[in-house]
Amino acid sequence: MIRFNLHCEKEHEFEGWFSSSADYDRQSENGLVECPMCGSHKIGKSLMAPAVAVSREAAASRPLAMDPEKREMMRKLKEMVQAVRANAEDVGERFPEEARKIHHGETEARGIVGKASSEDAKALIDEGIEIAPLPELPEDLS
């Protein structure tokens, strides 16, 4: 699959996925590519950088390049996550069990953090137990 950055005659920008460049050309010539915003069939391709696969470790070691507003938002989000973790007990894999005990008054009410599978998290929510995921953020937000 190949992803193209596309634009219409009214300068709406969007992306499209095609099996090849020739597939895009064929669909475009047959009027099958249209702007999702205005319905125009006069579509052009924009230049784009190719996606390069890297390992998760390599991606995690690179700093994030972002504008100052996003950097500030990420800094505040990181502070919030750190504050939650600093004021909660890390119960690890016992999170679903401990959350239920707190909810049912079987143990002291306190802030806890830990790990839960998506199935366990859904079950807790279905039981009326309020939980929220904490994002895992990269260390370097520059």
UniProtKB/TrEMBL annotation:
Entries under Pfam families matching the protein: DUF1178
Region Disordered: start-end pairs: 86-115
Bias type Basic and acidic residues, positions: 87-109
Species whose genome carries this gene: Hoeflea phototrophica (strain DSM 17068 / NCIMB 14078 / DFL-43)
Protein name: DUF1178 family protein
